[in-house]
Design brief:
This protein has 14 helices and no strands. The chain is mainly α and 286 residues long. The longest helix has 28 residues. The structure holds zinc ion (2 copies). One zinc ion binds next to helix 12.
């Protein structure tokens, strides 16, 4: 078995471009700019709603806090629905995303981290997507990090066919509102969402405050938190990875936590893990 330290990270990359990813990224970026020539209020509203569906329900609440870290439990149908929302972010299927992120936590800012800014800010932001071996999606390596998801047929299927919901929603937008809806709701919204997520890998390992002395460079960044529905409280997160709540202080706005709390209130989430330190903070404030 090759250790991940020899597969992931810039040192392991031979600089070869990931062609399919590169072409897709180029098309999405160009069409995101073209959207500005088709300003349409309804289309921008559709993009805003889909940004929340993909970014908050999908990436933050499902891919990250539920599937990767198991910060709470839901009925299977809720897990599957939220995971489908996650595929709309164009960040790959659940098994790929979860494995990459678990590897990031295991090797944060050390050899084997797929995207540490210690190997360059651009590398951590999007270079690793364009050139990194993490994108080769080696099933055997991924399965090593996702024994839980790899036995679930739905997650295995969705990991292969993760682009289908994106295409279905895109065609729906086209049928409903024509070209402006697709440009805003698919291309602008997805490109914007990608950069927001990538900022968690780049910016929150570079700039911001550190409440906890973790072994990595993670930081809390209020502006990345605003762009990512709460994922920017990244130092809190590295210190307490299983906590379903990332914004620990009352002023640390965490939309994904509001979403999880809402599911809990509806009886659709249970075993919700919250960092112990949060209770201590409440006691201190009282
Ligand atoms: Zn991190
Ligand atoms: Zn994490």
């Amino acid at each position: 078995m090759i250790p991940v330290t020899q597969i992931y990270g810039r040192k392991a990359s031979n600089g070869e471009i990931n062609t399919v990813t590169f072409i897709a990224m180029t098309i999405f970026h160009i069409l995101a700019v073209v959207a500005f020539f088709y300003i349409d209020f309804g289309a921008i509203m559709a993009a805003a709603i889909l940004w929340w569906v993909a970014g908050s329900l999908g990436i933050g609440m499902a891919y990250h806090r539920l599937l990767t870290h198991r910060g709470y439990k839901t009925p299977k149908w809720v897990e599957y629905f939220l995971t489908i929302c996650g595929t709309l972010a164009l960040e790959g299927g659940p098994i790929f995303w979860v494995a990459t992120h678990r590897i990031h936590h295991q090797h944060s800012d050390h050899d084997g981290d797929p995207h540490t800014p210690r190997e360059g800010t651009f590398w951590a932001h999007m270079g690793w997507i364009m050139f990194g071996k993490a994108m080769h999606h080696d099933t055997e390596i991924l399965a090593r990090y996702t024994p839980d998801l790899s036995k679930d047929k739905f997650h295995v299927w969705l990991t292969t066919w993760h682009w289908i919901p994106q295409v279905v929603v895109g065609l729906g937008l086209l049928a409903y509102g024509g070209i402006p809806y697709v440009l805003w709701g698919t291309f602008f919204r997805t490109t914007y969402g990608l950069h927001a997520t990538w900022l968690v890998n780049s910016a929150t390992h570079l700039w911001g405050s550190r409440r906890f002395q973790t072994k990595d460079d993670s930081r809390n960044s209020w502006w990345v938190a605003l762009l990512t529905f709460g994922e920017g409280w990244h130092n809190n997160h590295h210190a307490h990875p299983v906590s379903a709540r990332h914004g620990l202080a009352w002023y640390e706005f965490d939309m994904n936590w509001i979403g999880i709390s809402t599911l809990k209130a509806l009886g659709l989430a249970w075993d919700v893990k919250v960092a112990k330190v949060r209770q201590e903070m409440e006691e201190e404030a009282a």
